[in-house]
Structures are given as C-alpha cells and as structure tokens.
Amino acid sequence: xxxxxxxxxxxxxxxxxxxxxxxxxxxxxxxxxxxxxxxxxxxxxxxxxxxxxxxxxxxxxxxxxxxxxxxxxxxxxxxxxxxxxxxxxxxxxxxxxxxxxxxxx
Length: 105
Description:
By secondary structure, the chain is α+β, with helices and mostly antiparallel strands. It has one domain (5-99): 2-Layer Sandwich (Alpha-Beta Plaits). The protein has helices at 17-33, 64-68, 72-81; strands at 5-11, 43-46, 53-59, 94-95, 98-99. Strands 1, 2, 3, 4 and 5 form a five-stranded antiparallel β-sheet that branches. A hairpin with a 6-residue loop joins strand 2 and strand 3. Helix 1 (17-33) runs antiparallel to helix 3. The longest helix has 17 residues, at 17-33.
C-alpha cells in the first residue's frame, strides 16, 4: 500500500488563531515523534480569503493513519483543536481528504 498524503483544512475562529497555531505545531511534532508520518516536514498554509483558514499537508507512513486514531497523545491534540474551529458557509470545521501521489510520466 502506498503512503497516503492528507490535505487538512482547518476553519479557525479568528479569536483562537494563536492557540490554534500552538496546537498545529504540537500536532506536527507529535505525529513525527511517534513516527506516524514521513520525515518530510509538513507544509502549512494560511488562507488569504474566505475567513481564517489553515491547510496542513503531510504524508502518513504505512499504518500511521490507523495508529494515530488510537494514540492518546494524538487524540488529545485533535480534541483540543476542535473548539478552536468553526463551520463556515455550510462547510465543516475541518476536512481531511487523503490522496496518493501519481507519476504521469
């Protein structure tokens, strides 16, 4: 099975941006320390339109996705993030579509 890349979208409450950034740093460090993601640094983007939106892109190692959903340290970070986010324009607080990389050559 190929590694899966996830593109996380977080719709952050404006008054919670600082707390959210701290948790996002902790999220990345925790996933890496627990060896649930590849060694490649996560890409993080801050949206410039449609409210305060962050996008985080990283790649799970094989089996990392499943292990993350059972690990108390990861679950603690996710639970802390949830109240800092908001539904916006009919879209959920956060989204996590998974992708596999293709070679078109």
